[in-house]
Amino acid sequence: MEEMPEPRVTHLLKRGAYDAPGEIVPRETPEWLLPFPQDQPRDRLGLARWLVDRQNPLTARVVVNRIWRMHFGRGLVATPEDFGSQGKLPTHPELLDWLAGWFMDHNWDVKALHRLIVSSETFQQPGQTTRAIMERDPENRLLTRAPKIRLPAEHIRDSALAASGLLNRQIGGRSVK
């Protein structure tokens, strides 16, 4: 996977038809997003650096939201596939911003983020609830109780294999039944 010596010319397609090329589109980010740094190459490396730039918190917010969703059954943004204008607003925007900043400050350490979430009072609260709380917050948007979620089968399998000592941590290792 190398960059081409000359970048491929990309056209805006008329009415979305692949055989109807329109005007040429330069390698640039949308105007409403963080501008692409002038000192970065206009290639995949430059794009990767732009994605994780401290001034561009969108990537960190998306990652944090997905990890939050793994633990609580729903993300701080209920539409993890759409953080744009069509998606839902975050239920706790300050928390999402703080977690995204914390994540970037800690070198994008996913394990540390998991540890932070599971050691929080929000995660460790009991699952019991009262009828009044259920009526006030049936979808648990206020995080007033522990989530009732099911772990994905892969997580259960990997946990059981790790606990039994059968999990092969080598990438490309033989499968275990």
Please outline what is shown here.
The chain is built from seven helices and two strands, in the order ββααααααα. It has 177 residues and is mostly helical. It has a two-stranded antiparallel sheet.
Shape summary: extended
- SSE series: EEHHHHHHH
Helix content: 25-40%
Question: From the helix content, strand content and strand pairing, which structural class follows?
Answer: mainly alpha
> What's the pLDDT, averaged over the residues?
86
Total strand count, please?
A: 2
Calculate the terminal CA-CA distance, rounded to whole Å. Answer: 35 Å
Uncertain spans? none
Count every helix, treating DSSP H or I runs of 4 or more residues as helices: 7
Write structural notes for this entry:
Helices cover 38% and strands 5% of the residues. The protein is extended, with a radius of gyration of 22 Å. A two-stranded antiparallel sheet has the order 1-2. Helix 2 (58-72) packs across helix 3 and helix 2 (58-72) crosses helix 4 (110-118). A hairpin with a 7-residue loop joins strand 1 (10-13) and strand 2. With 177 residues, it is mainly alpha-helical. It contains 7 helices and 2 strands; from the N terminus they run E-E-H-H-H-H-H-H-H. The mean pLDDT is 86. The two termini are 35 Å apart.
